[in-house]
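Supplementary notes for students who missed Thursday's class. We covered one full example, reproduced here. Read the sequence, then the structure, then the short commentary at the end.
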Amino acid sequence: DNETFIYIQDSQNVLYCLRANGSIAWRRNFDQPLLSTVQGIDFRNNGACCFLFNTPTHIWLLDEEGHDVEGFPVKLQSAATNGLTVVDFDDNRRYSFFVACANGNVYGYDQYARPLPGWNPQSGAGRVDQPVLHFEREDKDYLVTLSRTGRLSVFGRDGSARFAPLQWEGKFAGPPQADAVSRSPRIAAANSLGKVYVCTLDGKSFSLALAPAAEANTRAQFVF
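Structure (token representation):
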């Protein structure tokens, strides 16, 4: 009904659902902090909103009253290291979920938490702290992971590699970003020393030094 909800979790891991006027709709205790944002999806395809997020050990789906949707939470095989990404590839309310775990694997699930073909799992991604990046270009889907140590992997929706993984130098605390709409689409990320790595959608890579290494600020936020 176009109602706005605000979700916030306190330091005791209590999750609050607030209405737009600040009143508490409900609250619920959790054992762990949320790793992802709370994302509203029409899970039942009936116009009612359900709310999806993940903690380190589970994927959760709640109804508007804060109750578990049947079949959830789903326990992950290994502790999650990032917030999950939700994609409705065909705009038909059939959702796919993607999450990286501490075992170095990236998992893809359909909306009922069944492994997606080609995503059970993608191994060797490394420690991925940032959400999987999704974008489209010329009717093709791109799903991008960047490990903390600079391993960039780019997949299609079926899990096939768009190109061989790239290894960029340095440590990466921020997410990969993409320009998918320009005449020369590309993916970019900055390491902690102020060096930006860029690749085209066919895997050709180059780098730019935005700041001298001695002056680079490891807390700086990179925006592409």
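Commentary. The chain is about 0% helix and 35% strand. The mean pLDDT is 93. If anything here is unclear, bring it to office hours.
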